[in-house]
Write a structure and sequence with these properties.
By secondary structure, this protein is mainly alpha-helical. A two-stranded antiparallel sheet has the order 1-2. It has a two-stranded antiparallel sheet with strand order 3-4.
Amino acid sequence: MRAATTFRALLYAAILVATAAGAYMLGRSTPETAATPTQSPSVAAESTELKLDPSYLQVVGITTEEVKSGDLRLDVLAPATVTAAPKGAGVVTAHVAGTIVQIAKQLGDSVREGETLAVVESRDAATMAADRKVAETKAALARQALDREQMLYEQRVTPRQDLERAQAEDIAVEGFVALARGLS
């Protein structure tokens, strides 16, 4: 048994020496390339372009796409406040910041409830509309989950705890919907 252990140790040592010798020979047979800079330091500091090997981009999952023009406009029904002035004129204030791109009414025109006064481009309003849409989608999912849990509870498949958790989630999500609708 002792001879087998000694033989195994010698075999491992021989494999280690053979591997090291092979690596050394491979290193000696590979031609060395001198690292020469492609640009002078002053030119490299001024450059705003970064060149990466396409294989590296593929490995890390970076893709490039052509830049295209798009339309960032979005119709958002947003609440505003109209304050009556002494001479029958009204002051309209919007609840979001933005740029007026079109005015639908002139000074002195009559305005009815729900009519468009102006079109405003606003990233804030677009964000608020997106938040409202997300909240409404989550609410729909919470209602579906509550209905499913109610049905399973009535069939005695799931415990009451799961039904109560679904009810609480539905109530919480409805609060977020109310908040999102109030802000936009």
